[in-house]
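Dear Dr. H.,

I hope your travels went smoothly. While you were away I took the liberty of generating a structure for the chain from your last submission, since the lab meeting agenda had it listed for discussion. I wanted you to have the full record in hand beforehand rather than looking at slides cold. The sequence, exactly as received, is reproduced here:
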Amino acid sequence: MDYGTYQQFAKETFGGEFGNIELLVTAFTHRSYVNEHKKTVKEHNERLEFLGDAVLELVSTEYLYNNFPDPEGILTNWRSSLVRTESISAAAARCNFEPLLRLSRGEKRGTERAREQILANSFEAVIGALYLDQGYDAASKFITDNLLVTFDEILKTGSWMDPKSHLQEVVQSSEGFTPVYKVLAEEGPDHDKTFTVGVFVNDKLKGRGKGPSKQAGQQQAAEAALKKYKSS
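The corresponding predicted structure, in token form, is as follows:
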């Protein structure tokens, strides 16, 4: 993939070319790609991701502070919902990041969850690249146009709540029950266990989740159950 492809993306997405196109190319370069192309590629996107994460948090915080008079705790929860992996990976997908990602052959065959994380990381890295190349205002406009515009929907659906709290609210309002979480299985040695957790409503299994802790498994189970409730 040549630099022209990335410049075309920059023109379509940011309204102009990058002064330093290497920054944008690096923003799409995963660590695994560098490992496969050590002779020709020297830098991956993790440093840009570190920078972009800080810019993203500042822009999101500024937006919420200027537009909502709510207390700190609520604003913090709202900001978390805006910048979580699921939100920013969805924004990256809408911007058609996928064809531009530079990944190893192994990562190209990775799981959906792994790809979601890669897209989220690249979104932050692109913000970092844009900030360095064109400044804070350009980065802020990109974040506003592609992420902050989703906030009304986040408020409407209640997805700013953590999955367990959200599920409890949905279930109690629609069925009058409280979700119950049960560990269905434990695998692996004590220092590296994986817990499979089920969430039950009126003794009916509504979702399963896996994680390195019971809490993580519960959150995934709640997410799975929420998807079922939304689709029903």
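Two observations you may find useful: The first strand starts at residue 180 and ends at 187. The chain has a mean pLDDT of 91.

With kind regards,
E. W.
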